Amino acid sequence: MATRGKNYREAAKLVASNKTYDPREAVAIAKKSGYAKFDETVELHLRMGVDPRAADQQVRGTALLPNGLGKQVRVVVFAQGEGARLATEAGAEHVGADDLVKKIEDGWIDFDVSIATPDMMGKVSKLGKILGRRGLMPNPKAGTVVAPADLPRAINEVRKGRVEFRLDRTAIIHVPIGKKSFDEEKLYENLMSVIEAITRARPSGAKGQYIKTASVSTTMGPGIRLDIKSITDLAVSA
Hints:
- By secondary structure, this protein is of the alpha/beta class.
- It has 2 domains: 12-69 and 162-237, Ribulose 1,5 Bisphosphate Carboxylase/Oxygenase (2-Layer Sandwich), CATH 3.30.190.20; 75-159, CATH 3.40.50.790.
- The protein has helices at 6-12, 23-33, 82-89, 98-105, 121-124, 128-132, 151-160, 184-200, 228-237; strands at 41-48, 60-64, 75-78, 94-96, 113-116, 162-166, 172-179, 211-218, 224-225.
- A 4-stranded antiparallel β-sheet has the order 7-1-8-9. A 3-stranded parallel β-sheet has the order 4-3-5, with helices on both faces.
- A hairpin with a 5-residue loop joins strand 8 and strand 9.
- The radius of gyration is 19 Å and the shape is globular.
- The mean pLDDT is 93.
């Protein structure tokens, strides 16, 4: 195992390895432990008590961050006709149909989120290998396949800070909740919005303890373990 750098070791001293923290304490420590010269992303990591191989135990959805993600979100929309007009008026960076599909097939992926109308999914499905591996494929469960009339709302939500969460093959969920430069209250509010959304998304097949472990960290910093009871109690009471 590679030896951690000096900056990381100094940051790790701020975190007690045998302790779990309430969410407000955790975000405060995360801000202090971020040592990189850039504005690091603060991330939430959850180990879930579900089986990712079971169809009735999938955890997937979206959460609206009340304070956004602290970055400009570049949106492309696959639409035609009235949908294309609405998406353009709503401020999507790129709007298109066959031309947009071809552009992405040729290697262009300079965007953060893609949204599509249902009638375009037959064309967009050809991009599965390109967009799927990058988490950019439009999906109804993620709120990125919407009717033409709903495009302005979907684009606005993405811009304000709608994030997608999804269980990976190791039963872990990774979600960004903001930037190190955010004040503690904004990070706390974003964190709890994600926890609440994931709690509401509990699948029918989930048995026993739903969230097994949780931690927050900055991009380069150490993990700070959260007290599971405190975050789940807060989420349920919200």
